[in-house]
Amino acid sequence: MKALSWAREQVRRRPRVGLGAAGVVFAVILTLHARVIRASAQQLESESPPLCKDGEGIQVRLSEKLSSAQFKCQPGKIILPPLRGEETRGNNKVFSGFLDAEGKIPIPFPPTGFTIENTTGETYTLKASSFPQHSGIWYLFCDTKSEVKQTDQADATVKCPITVVIEGTSKDPQCIRMNGTTDLQVEGAGGSVTFGCGYNFPRLDPGLPSTDVYVGRECDSKQKLSTLAPGAELTNKEGSQLYTLAAPTLPQSEQTLCYQCRGESNARFASCVAAEDQPAAAIGLLESMLVNRMWTVGPQKLEPAFLSPVQTDTF
Q1: What was the pLDDT predicted at 152?
Q2: Spatial distance between the Cα atoms of 172 and 56, rounded to a whole number of angstroms
Q3: Which residues, in sequence order, are CB contacts of 51 under 8 Å at separation 6+?
Q4: Where along the chain do the CATH 2.60.40.1320 domains lie?
Q5: Could you tell me which residue ranges the SRS domain spans (predicted)?
């Protein structure tokens, strides 16, 4: 009987489909993510640091609440890019930057207050005393010492990547990862959404003061925002990479709007796609030109038109 009561309680607690404005149904989407080993400041006190093995990957996350984390490379391996310095003791060496996801291109990390220390053996400690406004993702790799001497590049398909997620102080959704998604909703006319171009993709395209916007899933053609959504306006919070799309009225027919957040190289970018309709709108932040999730919105229902398995991060 106790088991039956527990089962009934779990059913009662399940997320339910709710009705939005004017009877629009907003579906609750549950996504199963791939298993990723995460490390945080709590592990410094209660657990052994996660071990990064060749061909696998681990993730460490730093935030204002969790400002340090540890991880370990396998015996005989060190991080790449290597710590620089004349001293032989690891914790006296200097953190020189990160690599891109493929382990080929050095990525500088301008914010101050971030350190990596080789504390003991193959154990490394990441610490941050201050955080940027915008979130970002960077990469380190565990590599053999002999290979590190020859090159500062890593083969991401063989070596163990350490994904370092540094959460910015802004709580608004940000385009920081390729192939990730975050879904927001505008509850009808007069609503707005705010999104950010993360640290890895700082340049908005089309950028202000342009009033153009990309159209469609492919984000390959531009039109005037006012033509697609009369009265809608995109504004920027001064001194930041945060943008607010306000819609005093909603279009009579479905429109798909797209803003791209680009990196310093045009080869790397994320996309913010907004699908709008009347009387309510769904805003999808699609962080890749390979659209993983696209919503169709109608006056009586909201359902995914295309959904492929992707790994996403939730801040």
Answers
A1: 52
A2: 31
A3: 58, 71, 72, 73, 74
A4: 37-166, 172-307
A5: 181-267
Q: Phi/psi at 201 (nearest 5 deg)?
A: -135, 75
**SS3 assignment, position 234:** strand
- Chain-centroid distance of CA 313 in Å reads 6
The domain defined by 37-166 carries CATH number 2.60.40.1320: yes
Nearest residue to 228 via CA among 267, 281, 300, 176: 281
**Structure-token match 């890749």, residue found:** 288
172-307 folds as Immunoglobulin-like (2.60.40)
Closest CA to 139 of 102, 175, 167: 102
Tell me: the pLDDT tens digits for 139-195? 889 887 655 544 555 555 567 889 888 887 877 777 666 655 555 666 677 878 888
Q: Report which of residues 16 and 6 the model is more confident about.
A: 6
Tokens 């153009």 identify what position? Answer: 212
